Amino acid sequence: MRPSRFAIRRAVVLAAWCAAAAPAFAQRDNGPAVEPEAIAALTRMGKFLQTVQSFRVKGDASTEEVLGQDLKVEHDTVSSMEVTRPDHVRAEQASDRRHRLVVYDGKTFSVYSKSSGYYAQAPMSGTVYELGNRLEKDYPVQLPLLDLFAWADDQAKPPEIRMARVVGFATIHGVACDQYVFRQDGQDWQVWIQRGAQPLPRRLVVTVTSQPSRPRYSADYEWTLNPQVAAASYQFTPPAGAVSVPLARVKEIAVPSR
Is the pLDDT of residue 184 over 50? Predict the structure, then answer.
């Protein structure tokens, strides 16, 4: 099975808690399980994300699916998300075999898939983070990149952290970052945070340790802050030939193309 959206979201919530230092863990085995510098660094990242009123983020992700006899299959996806706070989002996720588009304008939620030809719409209200919580609770909807909002929303509740350590300096696609690793029951996480005045998450890696096969999720993020986003980006018009289905049938949206 794949790391669940809830598992990935917990990774993101956890990131609102972690920091920079020596790469040699063996020399710090007697240190604190949760290093204060790590918590301070991730808190700083979360506070910065809360100040960004609009952004565009692209993500290249890889998810491991575990088949019978612990055979692993890797799925690569490309995601993009445009956000204008507090309640406008356009998010798209695509791979060679499936596609999903999510559009929300603070009044109506729409989801569409080219790979299935289905779309669904429903009236909704609230912030983007509240939208994510409602969809997760009431419908089996996984929104691409929406997990990032758990870092950027003061309503997010931090999980129980068993370990948080600073790994040290790293470069992600030419961007200077600091790498952190942390642990909670059943999951290990790593996050790479950009150095300087814009502490953005540039890479996230999640390993599910509660399963013997230890499936892994990883994503690299490319950010554009305060872009000009056209109002039409947050409106959805069903393409010709698309079939409307109730939101309760959302599992049928973004089914794989064989």
Answer: yes
Q: Which residue has the tokens 């794989």?
A: 256
CATH code of the domain containing 37: 2.50.20.10
Q: In this structure, are strands 216-225 and 201-208 parallel, antiparallel, or unpaired?
A: antiparallel
Q: What is the mean pLDDT of residues 179-207?
A: 93
Asked whether 199 and 181 are in contact (CB, 8 A), the reply is: no
Q: Regarding beta strands 201-208 and 88-94, do their DSSP bridges make them parallel or antiparallel, or are they unpaired?
A: unpaired
Q: How confident is the model at residue 131 (pLDDT cuts 50, 70, 90)?
A: confident
The residue range of the domain holding 210 is 5-252
Where do the H-state alpha helices sit in the chain? 5-14, 36-51, 128-138
The burial class, CB within 10 Å (0-12 / 13-18 / 19+), for 246 is: exposed
Mean pLDDT of the chain: 81
Are 160 and 13 in contact, with CB atoms under 8 Å apart? no
Residue with tokens 């049938």: 249
Mean pLDDT, range 129-137, rounded to an integer: 79
